[in-house]
Request: fold
Amino acid sequence: MAKQEQPGLLIHEIGGVDGVLEGHVELLKKHFHLITMKEFLENKKRLNEKIKSVFIHECKPVIDRELLQSLPHLKVIANSGVGVDHLDLKLIASFGIKVTNTPHAVSDSTADIGMALMLASARRLVEGCQISVSPQTEHFAADWLGDEVTGATLGIIGMGSIGYKVAKRAKAFEMKILYHNRNQRKEEEEKAVGACYCEKMEDLLQQSDFVMLVVNLTPQTFRFIGKRELELMKPSATLINISRGAVVDQDALVEALQNGTIKAAALDVTYPEPLPRDHSLLKLKNIIITPHIGTATVQATRKMTEEAVANILAVLNGLTIPSEVIPIRCFREHTYALAYLL
Amino acid sequence: MEEQELPYVLIATIGGIDGVLEDHVEFLKKHFNLITMKQFHEHKSHLSEKIKAIYMWWNKPVANQELLSSLPNLKVIATGGAGVDHLDLKLISSFGVKVANTPFAVSNATADMGMALMLASARRIVEGCQIAVSPNTEYFAADWMGDEVTGATLGIIGMGRIGYKVAQRAKAFEMKILYHNRSQRKEEEEQAVGAIYCKNIDDLLLQSDFVMLCVNLTPQTEKLIGKKELEMMKPTATLINISRGLVVDQDALVEALQNGVIKAAALDVTYPEPLPRNHPLLTLKNIIITPHVGGSTTKSCRLMMENMVESILATLNGLPIPNEVNPPK
Reply:
């Protein structure tokens, strides 16, 4: 098929800090005529009719009213990644454009990062590595101890695909698993991982040695872990966040860590990313922060692009869409929340 | 009624870098009269006949010919941890002294550490933490990647208690599990964790994305992993060592890591510990090293201590000794 006959796919750019990965370009070009934002802006009149889809990677290109108005044939915006909190779903829906994400591609690698952070934090791995290589190290101290993960209590807040995979992994460490979710999971699903439902988040917070946040960012989950929730946690507990920075009240977290309200935190996500270099979180001894690498594996990123491509092709060909994101109207608040078609 | 004296037990020291843990002292003193090496030296004539047991923590006090000769009524040495490579078992046996270790106490914590190292290495956690806090960080690069653990192939060398627990954990990550051991495990045990036996260690080395060493240190396993073994591993593979430093030929490992013969290594153990500060392993970018903390959790240390107390009491009361280490034939 000649390049011009392929449906147009708008992307931010190729390579660089936040562009589409060079290694994925061939896959995209198999199905689409790739158009970068630069090319589009230079040639709007000629290209705007060709663009049927947008591929969002690392939250770019930014989707605003102006862009949507300039793309009359746009059918679908395909996000690489599962979180779509950076998209104005209401606005996009008003143009009759579909939004898709990639829940399947991300779940294993993100669950793995949750486990990696819990283990690294509990066993003081980063600190240990520093001791091993430090020029000052003359001996290894016998009274330098970490916390046991095996047999401890893990409280999972948000038991979607990723949360459930975390539970499966934690079960193998003989952890006691509590979970809080909008809805209770089916009995067989709970039994398979030995998870106990906590209808009240407070119950989970009070009993857990490790609290792991695996929710979407929505108006309901925005800063839902704040001063009160941190104070409900055990002083010996660790907070792990692999969802979105904004689900945690960062100022409250700084205070809680400084005062020993909780023992430690391990964050793959913050708000913003990266944090300003003078942020208090960066100075604390009882925290580890990773640069949002939940899906940063060769395999996961590849799968994300493949899943996005499959979503786009389904939309353009009028087939069942594997992972459509549907905005839902909430009667009381007139706000929109997310729902996945699992 | 005359109060019976608590048995006299020799320890290295209390607290400090390698002493008995301060938190454990109360429990120990409930059962024993603790004598430190300092006290022993100062009052040898009075104490040497009273000491019935040695409570060995972090391999101290050292049970050499001199010490053993000066303790005529010594019945048992209880050592913390699973390894006994630091003990001259033949020598100790020649004095009629029994040895007990704590193989169970550390197995969960050590298996956890193996998984922690594998995940930290694969996902570049230590490097990531440095980027997150570095004053020079302005943005997070999109093309910065690690390797997926889920679905990868893990080769476990040494499928004892700890190796098997590693397999149980790795199974939940949907890893393909190969193992090499002196003897094959029972079929039900293999099936429970989905592990495939590799009678020939080469088969395991050729196929694994992660190779984890979970063996004891014995004359047979010393330098088990050398140049030849490293060259058999995939160039994309990672070596993880939670056993003993001497199981690996460290010079061969340095070379393999420098030349990209293997991708990376993650070591909780080296030889010696700590490494000399100018050792090449400390300068490599593709290695993470932790300071022998495989068993170092509050819970496991407590359990170790309780196991050791139990072994000493059983010996002194003429009962079967839990966790007795058989003398070499």
